[in-house]
From TrEMBL, chains A, B:
Domain HTH tetR-type as annotated: residue spans: 14-74
Keyword annotations: DNA-binding, Transcription, Transcription regulation
Source species taxonomy: Bacteria, Bacillati, Actinomycetota, Actinomycetes, Pseudonocardiales
DNA-binding span(s): 37-56
Pfam families, per the entry: TetR_C_11, TetR_N
InterPro entries: Homeodomain-like_sf, HTH-type_TetR-like_transc_reg, HTH_TetR, Tet_transcr_reg_TetR-rel_C_sf, TetR_C
Keyword Nucleotide-binding: no
Keyword Ribosomal protein: no
Protein name: AcrR family transcriptional regulator
One Gene Ontology term of the molecular function aspect: DNA-binding transcription factor activity
PANTHER family found in the cross-reference section: HTH-TYPE TRANSCRIPTIONAL REGULATOR RUTR, TETR-FAMILY TRANSCRIPTIONAL REGULATOR
Organism expressing this protein natively: Pseudonocardia alni
Amino acid sequence: MPPPSRRSGRPRDPDVDRRALAAAREVYGERGWSGLSLEEVARRSSIGKGSLYLRWPTRAALLVAAVRDRARFVADIDTGSLREDLVTFAELWTAFATSDDGRLVERLLVDSHRVPEIAGALADDAYPEHVRGARTMVRRGIERGELPAGTSVALVADLVAGAVRNHVATTPAHLAARDDARGYAAAVVDTVLAGVRARAQPSP
Amino acid sequence: MPPPSRRSGRPRDPDVDRRALAAAREVYGERGWSGLSLEEVARRSSIGKGSLYLRWPTRAALLVAAVRDRARFVADIDTGSLREDLVTFAELWTAFATSDDGRLVERLLVDSHRVPEIAGALADDAYPEHVRGARTMVRRGIERGELPAGTSVALVADLVAGAVRNHVATTPAHLAARDDARGYAAAVVDTVLAGVRARAQPSP
C-alpha cells in the first residue's frame, strides 16, 4: 500500500494537518526555531514523525505552513467594495497581529532573515498572507474601476498593511486595549485612497 | 576614588560606550536574547563586567541601548521641508533596515513581545527611533503649515514608516538589489501627503 502522501491521490485527513500545525505553532512560540524539533511536534500532536515528513519534507516547510495557516482568513475578505475590503482587512489584521498566533508572523519574518532554511522554505512563496491578500483586494478594486488603472498595487498594499503593522507593533499594551481598531483602519484606508486618487488627477 | 558612573559627574568615555554597544549587537545578532551574556560582551569589547553594569543596570537595558544607538541617525534629519524630510527618512531607513544592524530593530520588537525583561526596558521609551523620528518630522511640518492643523501625527508617521517597513520586509533579496529606494520613498510620501491634504479639504 502506498503511503498517504499528497501524490498518492488518497485524500489527506484535514484533522491531522490541523493538529500538526497547531503543535508546530505551539512549540515554535515557546522555544523558537532552535527548539522546534519534529520529535516534540509529533509528541504533542500524537502524529508519527513519518506522517509529518510525508506532509512537510523539512522542519522549515512545516513551520511556514503552520504560521501561514492561521493568517489565511485574509484571502476570504471579498465584500465587493475596495474600501470595505481594506477597512475589514485592516481591522481584522490589527486583532490577529496582537494574538499569540499573529505574533508568529513577525517572528517568522525576522527568523527568515537569519536562518537560511526558513528563507529557502519561503522562497517560492515570498509574500506573507497579509501582503498577498491586500494586493489581491487592490487588484480587484482597480479592475472594478475604483482606483485609476495605473495605480501601483504594491504601493497601496504596503501603505495599508504597513500602517497597520506599524500601529500594532508600536502601540503600548495599555493603550492597545482602548484602541479603536475600526476607526483607525478607516482613517488609514481613506487617507491612502484619497492620496492615490488625488495624485492621479491633473493638478488644477 | 568613586567609580566612573553616570552619577559621579565624571565624563563617560564615549569610546567605551561605542565598543560595548557594538559588542552587544554582535552577540545578540549571533546568539539571540538567550545567548546574550554580559560575560561575552565584556570579553569581546575588553570592558570589565563592572563597567558594563555601571552603565546599563540590566542585560535588557544594554540590548535596548545597543540596538537603538545605530538607529539614532533618523533624529538628525531636518531639511526644513516636510516632504524632503520624509523622503530622506524613507530612503535612509530602507537602506538601514536591510543592514545587519537594522535587522536587529525588528528582532528586538519581536523579542519584546515574548521576553518581559525587554518589554520592561522599553516601557519608559516605547517608540523605536524610526517611529519617534517620523513623528517629529510630521509635527514640525504641521507647525510650519505644510499640513492642516488637525492632522494625526501618528497616522502620517505610521503610513510612511509602515510602508517602508513592509516594503523592506517583503521585497525578495534578488529584487532588493534593483530597488529604486528614492523613487519608492517619494511615491510613498507623495501619496500620503496628497491623501492627508485631500481629506482635509471640503468635498467639492
